[in-house]
């Protein structure tokens, strides 16, 4: 069963069409990564699916309902998004920031309930950020802050989590730390994870399903072995790639590549 999919989606900024006639299924309880060159529509697609921006035509369907008709709080109980550059958390402690994830469940004057505090502590625990609860977010390292933002998304208690380039600005160790955390959440709690990644080998290593975009259209969507191929990478990135196998995961990986010149 597919819970989330798009049908003939068109998304524009002004008069510029970014995403064109895009229909895609998002596998449930799997990790999906979206790859493509800068400006191809990856982030735009994520924002449209999560209703941060509107689409001009087509539809996004979740659990049989068009998300355009969903009440905001109801939708926020089903899907969470961590943007590429989260808003500043200046002046907030870690616990305060994570508590924002409970907004969809608050009533009346917005006071936190016992259940809210329970979910906040759980999110801090599962992301390994419990020891930072009373520390200012600004005092943390990049990797620590990213885990705290993920904790906020988890506190939202959704089955589906979207992340726009969650490894941006992180060093290699912290990138791996974040991706392994997301993989753990998927495997142990069956969270559906959808994320934009620039690194092809990270996308192949951690994804069950990959969507390759070019100029707002899908070039190929499928399992890693179907997408991380010489032909697909040539079409999407205009490179001549040498594809091998990751000796640790046996997933396909881009060993090296050359930029294609001219019309080749």
UniProtKB/TrEMBL annotation:
Top-level taxon of the source organism: Bacteria
Principal location listed in the UniProt entry: membrane
Pfam families registered for this protein in UniProt: ABC_tran (PF00005)
Lyase is among the record's keywords: no
MF-aspect GO terms: ATP binding; ATP hydrolysis activity
Cellular component, GO annotation: plasma membrane
Domain ABC transporter: 4-240
EC category name: hydrolase
Cell location: Cell membrane
GO BP of this protein: iron ion transport
PROSITE patterns: ABC_TRANSPORTER_1, ABC_TRANSPORTER_2
EC number(s) given by UniProt: 3.6.3.34
Keywords from the UniProt entry: ATP-binding, Cell membrane, Hydrolase, Ion transport, Iron, Iron transport, Membrane, Nucleotide-binding, Transport
UniProt name for this protein: Ferrichrome import ABC transporter, ATP-binding protein FhuC
Gene source species: Priestia megaterium (strain ATCC 12872 / QMB1551)
């Amino acid at each position: 069963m597919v819970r989330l999919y798009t049908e003939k989606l068109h998304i524009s900024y002004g008069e510029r069409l970014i995403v064109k006639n895009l229909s895609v299924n998002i596998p449930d309880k799997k990790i999906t990564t979206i790859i493509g060159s800068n400006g191809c529509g990856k982030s735009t697609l994520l924002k449209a699916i999560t209703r941060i921006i509107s689409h001009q035509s087509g539809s996004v369907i979740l659990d049989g309902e068009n998300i355009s008709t969903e009440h905001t709080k109801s939708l926020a109980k089903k899907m969470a998004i961590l943007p590429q550059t989260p808003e500043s958390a200046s002046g907030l402690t870690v616990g305060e920031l994570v508590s924002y994830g409970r907004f969809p469940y608050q009533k009346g004057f917005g006071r936190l309930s016992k259940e809210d505090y329970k979910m906040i502590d759980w999110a801090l625990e599962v992301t390994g950020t419990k020891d930072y609860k009373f520390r200012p977010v600004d005092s943390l390292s990049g990797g620590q802050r990213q885990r705290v933002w993920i904790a906020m998304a988890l506190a939202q208690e959704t089955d589906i989590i979207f992340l726009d380039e969650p490894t941006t600005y992180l060093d290699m160790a912290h990138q791996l730390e974040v991706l392994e955390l997301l993989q753990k959440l998927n495997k142990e709690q069956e969270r559906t994870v959808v994320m934009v990644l620039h690194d092809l080998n990270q996308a192949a290593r951690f994804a069950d399903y990959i969507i390759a975009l070019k100029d707002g259209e899908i070039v190929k969507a499928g399992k890693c072995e179907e997408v991380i191929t010489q032909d697909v990478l040539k079409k999407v990135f205009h490179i001549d790639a040498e594809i091998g196998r990751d000796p640790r995961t046996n997933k396909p990986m881009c060993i090296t590549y050359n930029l294609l010149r001219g019309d080749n």
